[in-house]
Design a protein that fits this description.
mainly alpha; globular; 2 domains; Arc Repressor Mutant, subunit A; Tetracycline Repressor, domain 2; about 65% helix
Length: about 190
């Protein structure tokens, strides 16, 4: 057993039982070890959750970084879509990610920010656009996963008509990019 095995099993447990069902007791049972042995790899459950969040984001972290030839608008759209797809890969992926700190991804974030600034986006606007797109994406996926998860189908008397989550996401993302474009060209 090693740290990567513990995280992989914890993510598999997440997919099976959801975030509420993930416990160090269940994880230890799944790994066939005593619960205290997990503390060799993770001092707290919070540390384990942070490692799980980082591992769950690996598909997005493997996406190519932007190059100077890229159009910043197209890159921004695809980067945000990639983030959404990655969050949707795991049950409760958005809940797992919410509040996590991207400590292992700082160089990639710096590269992305530098690309936007080099493309003519004012630095403060680039920062706020990345933050806004990230929070919008997490919120959108939270809602989508709540609608599609166990017990998430709205069938009560106050249920709203079905929402096409992808179309709603794309519409909101377009508003963010259109607003940023207006700031760049102003």
């Amino acid at each position: 057993m090693n740290r990567e095995t513990v995280v992989a099993e914890a993510l598999d447990l997440l997919d099976e039982v959801g975030l509420e069902g993930v416990s160090t007791r269940q994880l230890a049972k799944r790994l066939g070890v005593e619960q205290p042995s997990l503390y060799w790899y993770f001092r707290t459950k919070k540390d384990l959750m942070a490692a799980m969040a980082q591992a769950a984001m690996a598909p997005h972290a493997r996406e190519p970084l932007p190059t100077p030839e890229d159009d910043w608008r197209e890159w921004f759209l695809e980067n945000t879509r990639s983030f959404r797809r990655t969050l949707l890969m795991r049950r409760d992926g958005a809940r797992l990610h919410a509040g996590s700190t991207p400590t292992a991804d700082l160089d990639r974030i710096r590269h992305k920010m530098a690309f936007l600034v080099a493309s003519g986006v004012p630095e403060r606007d680039a920062q706020m656009a990345m933050l806004t797109a990230g929070r919008f994406t997490v919120g959108s996926v939270l809602e989508e996963q709540a609608d599609s998860g166990p017990g998430g189908s709205p069938d009560g008397p106050t249920a709203a008509p079905g929402i096409d989550h992808e179309s709603a996401f794309e519409a909101g993302l377009s508003l963010i990019v259109d607003g940023l474009t207006a700031r760049v060209t102003a």
